[in-house]
């Protein structure tokens, strides 16, 4: 007598189970695209943040320097250099509010980096011909630093400071300075951002 054994089909031996090669390739491709897009988005966000940070650093330096400069010029007794209604210069000379000090502002360059500096000298023995005791108003540090140059309105003329005076009017100091990124602090961004300080300040002591 022949017995027929009932064979149950093995569910794990199914030719249609699992992924085909095409499906695997499709999944891998989608993952690669997703990772690539995510990486681009992250890179873009980092660059955008860095540019914003650079611009903020420049604006903070420019605001500090311009406010200090503007306050002292406005409260000056009178100016000495550059000459009234003459050509511009990279250095400004004036006497403070009570004429006890000669105050000087200049843009000085060292290794190509421009720095705004402030100097002073006592007038107790008469008005000196130059200032001493110069200190930096801005800095060129790798992070958060700026370079300062004259915002030249007329090509070839370094008009950082220029003084004008109308007949019967007060002296007016025109300041043209440009603040730019110090470049080396943010390696992913090169030369982004600048602030131009271009203003006219009336010297109150000359009314």
UniProtKB/TrEMBL annotation:
InterPro entries: N_methyl_site (IPR012902), Pilin-like (IPR045584)
Regions crossing the membrane: 21-46
SUPFAM superfamilies xrefs: Pili subunits
Keyword entries, A-Z: Membrane, Transmembrane, Transmembrane helix
Any Pfam family matching the protein: N_methyl
Domain of life: Bacteria
Protein's name according to its UniProt entry: Uncharacterized protein
